[in-house]
């Protein structure tokens, strides 16, 4: 009998014994292509000795020093690297241990920013339906993932939400992409006015929506309009790039493509690539200066914030991405993956959409392709496809859409940035079998 309290104890899991490149091997010797990086985490593949060496080196120097006593060379170097890699002006980095922690820290940072400016009534964070921002109670209150929320409400604070920018779902017949992007962004202005700008701290959104909707990027122009609206009402813009950042979509930050600078941005999964638990909150000099020149500091922190081993691992991962020019491969293999998915599933009767950016791609599964009606909740098939895929030696990340009753299940693909062309073909073949 196992003593580990697994997520779904009734579905016994295979035991992973080895990770190498794009593959994980279980105790029976069966090999699985890790086509989703777990949950879009493993960005340089498994078992890279350069990361192992960096962590070993760090461990031989110092493994742990609490951040209320010391900073570390690893944390300093990682923050420098991230700020240099960011083409948008994000100047300060706060390091934590997980995506949820990063989102919590980002919200608190935004609240403290307004407090320091004497705008104490600003408390509300507007977010979007069909989003995921983490599993802690605060992150769940801004997230829009009903199955994850259902057992645990009511939340400490129920935050207001607007419809996301999902053209394939919400654009009207004949509406241009540009008009739709503006209409979707203007929902934010409507919400700010309804709540009163003096009550709104921030707008929080995933730049490319990952787990809950399946790799949905907003239409061009959406985030630029959102930025204008935030500026007009003194609302901070927080972009959650826990999943889509760190190079996953082909640029270091997904918001580079949108040409928008947020006030605060979160990174996690591809930051440490799964070698250590780590996440980051990046912010502008304005946010940092306002807090530091106000009460003196950010009243926040975890025991394992900026853990030196995690920082050393993340720095090694980020240098590998840079030195091996992996973002070029993300763009090339991402285009190949999308093209193969289109070819294989574009006319499939139960695939309503193929979409994504870079190496974050998804297919949406529906009862009827043309009407795009989702399967009924009893017939959710994302999880069934995951099971079939595992049998075929393929890891994919399923998600149930249905927030509004109109989205289908999806299967998310997020292979490592250094995946090769043959493996991409194999992924699509095996997924075809599973579907
Ligand atoms: N934000 C986004 C966009 C995510 O995809 C996730 C994880 N799926 C989180 C936050 C939470 O991260 P973690 O699971 O590391 O707490």
UniProtKB/TrEMBL annotation:
Gene3D superfamilies: Aspartate Aminotransferase, domain 1 (3.90.1150.10), Type I PLP-dependent aspartate aminotransferase-like (Major domain) (3.40.640.10)
GO molecular function per UniProt: transaminase activity
Keyword Transferase appears in the UniProt entry: yes
Superkingdom as given in the UniProt entry: Bacteria
Pfam family, one: Aminotran_3
Assigned keywords, A-Z: Aminotransferase, Pyridoxal phosphate, Transferase
InterPro entries: Aminotrans_3 (IPR005814), PyrdxlP-dep_Trfase (IPR015424), PyrdxlP-dep_Trfase_major (IPR015421), PyrdxlP-dep_Trfase_small (IPR015422)
Family: Belongs to the class-III pyridoxal-phosphate-dependent aminotransferase family.
Protein name: Aspartate aminotransferase family protein
Organism per entry: Nitratireductor aquimarinus
């Amino acid at each position: 009998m196992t003593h580990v309290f697994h997520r779904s104890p009734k579905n016994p899991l295979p035991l992973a014994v080895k990770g190498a490149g794009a593959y994980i091997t279980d105790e029976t010797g069966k090999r699985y292509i890790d086509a989703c990086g777990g949950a879009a985490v493993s960005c340089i593949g498994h078992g890279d000795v350069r990361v192992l060496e960096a962590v070993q080196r760090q461990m031989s120097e110092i493994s742990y020093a609490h951040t209320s006593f010391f900073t570390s060379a690893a944390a300093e170097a990682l923050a420098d690297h991230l700020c240099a890699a960011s083409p948008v002006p994000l100047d300060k980095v706060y390091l934590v241990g997980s995506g949820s922690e990063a989102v919590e820290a980002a919200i608190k940072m935004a609240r403290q920013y307004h407090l320091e400016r004497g705008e104490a009534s600003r408390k509300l964070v507007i977010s979007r339906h069909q989003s995921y921002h983490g599993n802690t109670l605060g992150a769940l209150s801004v997230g829009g993932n009903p199955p994850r929320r259902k057992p645990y409400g009511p939340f400490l604070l129920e935050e207001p939400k607007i419809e996301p920018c999902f053209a394939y779902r919400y654009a009207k017949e004949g509406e241009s992409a540009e008009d739709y992007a503006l209409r979707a962004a203007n929902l934010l202005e409507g919400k700010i006015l309804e709540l009163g700008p003096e009550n709104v701290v921030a707008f929080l959104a995933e730049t490319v929506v990952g787990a809950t909707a399946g790799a949905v990027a907003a239409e061009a122009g959406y985030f630029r309009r959102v930025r204008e609206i935030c500026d007009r009402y003194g609302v901070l813009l927080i972009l959650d790039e826990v999943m889509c950042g760190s190079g996953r979509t082909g640029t270091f930050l997904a918001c580079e493509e949108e040409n928008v600078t947020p006030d605060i941005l979160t990174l996690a999964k591809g930051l440490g690539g799964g070698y250590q638990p780590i996440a980051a909150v990046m912010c502008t000099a304005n946010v940092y200066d306002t807090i530091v020149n106000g009460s003196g500091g950010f009243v926040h922190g975890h025991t394992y914030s900026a853990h030196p081993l995690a920082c050393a691992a993340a720095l090694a991962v980020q240098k590998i991405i840079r030195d091996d020019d992996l973002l070029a491969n993300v763009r090339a293999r991402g285009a190949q993956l999308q093209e193969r998915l289109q070819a294989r599933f574009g006319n499939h009767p139960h695939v309503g959409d193929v979409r994504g950016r870079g190496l974050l791609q998804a297919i949406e599964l529906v009862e009827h392709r043309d009407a795009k009606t989702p399967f009924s909740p009893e017939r959710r098939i994302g999880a069934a496809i995951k099971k079939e895929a595992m049998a075929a030696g393929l890891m994919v990340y399923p998600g149930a859409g249905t927030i509004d009753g109109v989205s289908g299940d999806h299967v998310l693909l997020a292979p490592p940035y250094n995946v090769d062309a043959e493996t991409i073909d194999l992924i699509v073949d095996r997924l075809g079998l599973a579907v």
